[in-house]
Amino acid sequence: MKTAKRPWTRAEKSLFVIPLLLALAAGGNWLLQRTAPLFIGTGELKSVAFSPDGRYLAVLTRHESRLADAGAIYDARTGALQARLPVPTPNASLHGLDWAPDSSRFATTYVDLARRPPTYKYRGKKRFKFFYRVAIWDAASGARSGFFPYAPAHEYSYASLDWARDGKLWGVGTPPALFDVQSGQRLRRFGPQAVPGALEWSMFNASHTQIVMFNKEGDVWIYEIPGGRMVRKWRFRDLSFAAWSRDDDVLAIFQNQRKKKDELWSGSLRLVNVRTGRVLTPPPLVHGEGESWGRDGQIAFVDRPVRPNARGGTGSETSRVLVWNFRAAKMVWQKTSGEQDEQFSSLSFSPNGRWLSALISTSSSWRVVWDAKTGKEICRRRVNSEEQEMKWAPDSKSLATYGYGGNGIRIWRLSD
Q1: What is the pLDDT of the chain when averaged over all its residues?
Q2: Does domain 243-416 have CATH number 1.20.120.1200?
Q3: How far is CA 382 from each of CA 109, 302, 387, 411, rounded to the nearest angstrom?
Q4: pTM exceeding the 0.85 threshold for the entire prediction
């Protein structure tokens, strides 16, 4: 004879259900912490950079008084403040930063705004003569471990820094130069001895064996390092930008060209093999911008036809993201915006070349990550309208979104 099952009492139900609910809550909290972004409140942002080992995040911000900038180092995993940087001078304006390969130090350039810079005339236009200095900071303590002038007092200078893998410090800008980090001595200056201000921009390749420079007139020079021999020289009309590929072989040169009234604006792109001088087949762009170099011959662009509007400004058609293989001269994949006002921008391949990230802006803003080979969407996160910029962590497993002038950084971790 079977005995009837006694129903559970309220106390027995509680003993069973409560631990289950606690376990579910703990699991949900773990999942939320894993997927929700880490927010770091910083103040008005100027520059952000992960250390090469991924442990630190160096940040430059504008000071509340607007008379000087400030800097800080954060733990990239927890967001905890590691150190605040002592300002070089009470009215220092900090510009750009770059980490040493071993993540022990980073460098910035700065200019003292307390002194009004002298002016000079170049082609009938008044320009300021800025005199930049270099500051070296210790990553663990935030202490300034060195500072020195970027150029002699009689030279005009405007520059950012590029720390090479061998520990040498390279100055990018006007004039490009090589420095001894320990002594601050300028070992070498690169490029033509032109009129101050004529040199507009410069960039070393990844291996620091060549440097490309151009000016407002459209002259482009490539110099060999360390020999200093000029390898190539071109002249292009309406030159806007140039960028090296990751393997140092190819240079992308952008030109902006405006056609007749009521016709599309167009952007001309040239892909040049620097070693051979051969011009490669470019992608089919109408108005290409926002390039990012990937691996295995990939380069990505935002392509955006632009028309003059009735007020004399510009109105944009739908945009697309285009991934091109310059070695095979073929399209890998492309994405076209689904709405009239939907725009792509802020492209960036991950360091391992596996992912491509972009900002999608409509009535709201989204940061999307695609598989670089197939174009398959991996994830999509809603971001604030001011979060126009992003930086990949060195391990390619997370990324930071922020905006210049914004007051914080969000660090997003990709799903494993």
Answers
A1: 79
A2: no
A3: 34, 20, 10, 13
A4: no
